[in-house]
Structures are given as C-alpha cells and as structure tokens.
C-alpha cells in the first residue's frame, strides 16, 4: 500500500421497484424494520434506474458522494449504516494487472468516492431511494469483494431505505418483515423471476416530477403515530393480501393481481388521509386517472389495467399485454393530453427485468 497512485473502480446499474402491496410504517426507525410484508415488481433498468460508480484509492482523504453531479453529505445514519455493514464484510482484493493488493484489514483505513446518477426525477415518488441504496450496496459489495448472498445484501440495503431491499432482485419480490429485534431476518426474497410473467407491461404516467412535500420516511412515521387504519391494515389486511398476491403472481391471474394492486394502493392513500394532519400524495390528475381506469375495468366486466400510486401523484399502470398497453397509451393521450390544464407530461414504458451488473 506504499504506492498511492492507484484507483480501483466498480460501476453497477440497479432498477427501481414498484410495490403492489405497500410498505408503510416501521417498527424500528434505525434498523428500518417494517410493520408488514410487502411485494413489488422490479422494473427494466433501461427506463428507471440508478447508475453508481464506487472508487477506492489510498489518495482519497475521506468518504465522499455525488448525487446527479452534486456533492451530498454522507453524515446521515443511513449511509453510515450501509458503509459500516459492507466494510465489516470486506475481503482481500487482488488486481495483478494494476499491481493492487488490498488486504481485508486495509478496508477500514481506505476511503471511497461514490458517484450516483438517476435517469429519472429524484424524490418525486418514483422510488429513487430504492434504486439508489440498492445500487450503492451492490456496487460497494463488488468493490470490497463481499461474498454475501443477495438476500443478505438486501438486508443491508434495507438500512439505507426500506424499499431498496426489494431492488436487489429482478421480477417479483417479497420483503419479509421478519421477527428478530436485530433485523437479521428482515430481507427480500424473489417470488418469481422476470421471465415468469413477461407479458406484463408497466407504464408510468409522470403527472408531476416535482419533489414531494412529505418524504416517505416522515409520512410513515406520522401514520404510525396517528392512524388507527394503518394498524388495522398491517395486522388484519396485509397478511391475507400477501398470500392472495403470491397466488395471483404464481398463477398469472391478472384479474386478481389487478384487483389486489388497486385496492392496496387505495388503502395506502386512505391511511395517508387518516393520518393527522392528513397527507396528500395524489392530485386531481391522479384521481381522474383512477376514475377513468375504474370505469374502463367495470365496462369490460373484468380488470383490463391495474393502477398503483406511491408517495407522489405519478400513476403506475400495469397492462396484461402489449395489446392492452397500446390501447391504454392511446386512451391516456386522448383523455389526458399533455397540456397546461393537466400537468401530465410524459410516459415511461418499462418491462420487468433482472438486476444488471455493469461492473
Ligand atoms: C409508498 O422505502 O422510501 O413507496 O424506508 O423511510 O426510506 P424509507 O421509506 P421508502 O418508502 C417507500 C414507501 C412506498 C411503498 C413501497 O415502496 O412499498
């Protein structure tokens, strides 16, 4: 390590995920342990993803991070938890070509530089923290030759942002809430790979790319403290829904999948209204999209399209196949033309996909 003129880098790309059974509420704020299980679909990394490059060099004097080109502080507990957990599992790294040899015990003395880019609006309710922390943990683990399996890495990403644990896998993913007080069994598992139900098409109608007023973290804290509906939901509703959703995914039962997805999204936003003071993530355009989809589904006698909204006004619409997706896009453009009246500005089409390692 006498030679200070080297730098070792890893780049990785991680997609975001969209919950179809929502996570909302923690039982432990520091370890980020949820009050219920959740299920999500991981998107195609080409559309909504984070790309992160992590670098290590003896010439770096401190850990530093840049998000979308702007330096941000790593002082927060969440970044520190992820860095600490990965460093504690680091192993020897040898790069003969570059003449680099890092011993396990050296990692505590070396500093990292992290550069992360989102190819979509940050903090606008499009799960940017999910892709961001998943990518951070994944790329640091590669850099430091961490040998843990993906599930264990997901438990580390969870300590950055809860929903991030689900982005460590592609396809359909369940975050098991776990029972242990230290969070060791609160991690993500893959329910089905991205090829299992590859007819599904996901369309995101970007209603607004502005940053949300209430972050998910503070919103869910307020709900835990004040919403009776949230506690009823986590104990009485979600456990049954998780089983039904797992079955719908396994059997590719679109009507059940759509019904559960829409109902769960609506209950999550009902919890937000039940919070004191109430939290409004959706806007008028979001409500009009829901009314339109409900009318369409009812007119056909069976669900054609599923909708779900996270902590923001943007609609995530899921069609069973390309044919319905094309019809859906035509209808969206006709009923919600991009204009000054509706602030519906753009659409992103995404298929499900596996985590892609660009390193
Ligand atoms: C509505 O994972 O962003 O998207 O754990 O505090 O970082 P923290 O919250 P975050 O919350 C996501 C909430 C949600 C639902 C979901 O993704 O399950």
Automatic annotation (TrEMBL):
Domain Mvd1 C-terminal, chain residue ranges per copy: 202-359
GO molecular function: ATP binding; diphosphomevalonate decarboxylase activity
Keywords for the protein's UniProt record, in alphabetical order: ATP-binding, Lipid biosynthesis, Lipid metabolism, Lyase, Nucleotide-binding, Steroid biosynthesis, Steroid metabolism, Sterol biosynthesis, Sterol metabolism
Listed EC numbers: 4.1.1.33
InterPro entries (UniProt xref): GHMP_kinase_C_sf (IPR036554), Mev_decarb (IPR005935), Mev_diP_decarb (IPR029765), MVD-like_N (IPR053859), Mvd1_C (IPR041431), Ribosomal_Su5_D2-typ_SF (IPR020568), Ribsml_uS5_D2-typ_fold_subgr (IPR014721)
Family according to the record: Belongs to the diphosphomevalonate decarboxylase family.
Protein name: Diphosphomevalonate decarboxylase
